[in-house]
Task: structure prediction
Amino acid sequence: MSGGMSKMTSASPTPSVRTRFPHLRQDFAASLVVFLVALPLCVGVAVASGVPAELGLVTGIVGGIVAGLMPGSSLQVSGPAAGLTVLVFEAVREFGLPALGVIVLAAGLLQLAMGALKLGRWFRAISVSVVEGMLAGIGLVIIAGQLYAAAGLKAPASGLDKIAGLPGAFVDALGSTAALASLGLGAGTVAVLVLWKRLPKKVQAVPGALAAVVLATVVSLAFSLPVADVEVKGLLDAIQPPGLDAFGELASPAMLGTILAFTLIASAESLFSAAAVDRLHDGPRTEYDKELMAQGAGNTVCGLLGALPMTAVIVRSSANLQAGAKTKASRVLHGVWLLLFAALLPGALALIPLPALAGILVHAGWKLIPFREVVSLWRAHRGEALILVATAVAIVVVNMFEGVLIGLALSVAKTAWEASHIKLEVIDKGAGPVQAYLSGNATFLRLPKILDSLESLPQDRPVELHLSGLHHLDHACRTALESWAERHSATGTEPVKVTSGTL
Result:
């Protein structure tokens, strides 16, 4: 055969879209569901927080696209959360809207630092009772505040005043046609949300929150109800990056405390949500430190845009899973749909009546209150149940940050009290020395009990104190036992003998 051998080359087949993205169909469908769930919630949380409605959409967009692309938890969805509504409202009222971006930015940078330092897993050590008490307290304040909004009335500032003023607000609403119409529309929205789950599954394909808002909007327009609608500024006008003047307030202890509150509460809520989402699917587990960094990156961007803070949101995350999502593509696409809506249809927001959004927030606040958990905790762990209730009450009476600190302090005190379990066994054979055996953990928390028992021993008999059963003896107890031994020996009896340990 003359000439060189001919060589046949064949190009490797280009992988198809289906090969590269095997779950694209499921993720695409799930992203539309999550978008429809997130849309009214983003707007409602923003309005309830006292900021332009568009800022809620901005946070939803960032939560989907920025946090959604990052590693951590592949299926949970982030955005503005009802759990931070109270804190954001207080921050905007105290420091002004321009300072909100600084607060969120600083909180995001702190989250990034904590994730880099591998502190994400430590949030799992926070007592569940404190977290549920925090959510319950937030839920109560949200419900109380949004009941005023549903009636078109201005709510008092503090949580306690909101609750205490409800009877008077109801009386005022009865005397106003506009207030009654507004309240009726809000109540109708809540009714649709509650009853939606009882409808056929095909109907439930439309998210209840979206259906409630659409129905309320149609009713408001059809009957020309005298209710307030959402104020629309436009996406670009609503975005206001923080100026240099706003950064000057970072020296304020009050703002530093608010930043710390944003950081701790947003991080705890996100990581507890991740743990809950992990229980709902069999896919990859959450990497907590990476998820904390994803939340930090998202909040950093939200801060630079002057938007609301973001957390992982269990409502959107569970909707994502129930819709059949398989990868993070669904949450990224939901952010894209929010961006397209905000860019192309911002005027649609102006049609939404405020009482409808108030109704959505009332329903969301109710779902934050863990009624079943309180009952089960009371039956099995009453101390934990009391911590939950005390945290919730403290948030309502004082404020959210200090309420959470009170809950954490109570949780630590309870743990320390239980860890200091100690037992004193006295053996008195009637003749010879009285033998006292201490076992467990001798700490200052149980010191009164120890001393009462030792001082009740006969003063005219020698005593042998056995410490071999102690796992821990702190300085306060050691000093107190030394003083007791000296007092007992001063009565003329033999000195107290200490075995298996020295004072």
